[in-house]
Amino acid sequence: MPAPELGRIAVVDDEENIRETVGFALEREGYVVQTFADGAEAWAGLETALPDLAILDVLMPRMDGLELCRKLRARSESLPLIFLTSRDDEFDRVLGLELGADDYLCKPFSMRELLARVKVLMRRLALLRDSAAPEADERLRVDGLDLDLQRYTAQWKGRDVALTVTEFQVVRALVRNPGFVKTREQLMTAAYPHDAFVSERTIDSHIKRIRRKFAGADPAFEGIETVHGLGYRYRARN
Fold it and tell me: In terms of residue numbers, what domain contains 88?
């Protein structure tokens, strides 16, 4: 009897050796893999049926990873996205995170590290989708914010706020200790516990996008406060 499929993953990169190597490693783990040589080819193949997770190169012909990310995010706020980028492309990494990528890896990267990050994101996605998840009240409720720690969902005053997995981790770290300052380093550890190459600008990018999402639910939202020279804190009204 064949092993059950773990999920469908799209790998988009114009370097054939990367597509083949990553695709082979993922298939060996039990994932169904689709590979595409550029963003335009990927969008044509994914427009009608999104994968469970996408791995995108930043620099590609015809349509780059940033534009593909925009299009995929317009279709789904919860689709896990991982960027592959060079160490020198900090601007692209920051812009990609502002567009809604969950994570990124710098080339050359460890295949073991990529697989570990894929597994983490897929595990959390499974919890989000599992209607049979335990009913234990594993939640954080502060002020008008309600975080479901099992399903990685957020609500503000009863309205859903569609956070990516990484954004959820940042919000959870802030909300666990309302009123207390979390440094960028502490937030980096919460969002990227295994990444030594995340910059402070990465956290600033996530905070910017998180604020924008909460403002979409409530234009008066001011829960995440910048403490200049230190970091951020969640400011509860009660």
Answer: 8-129
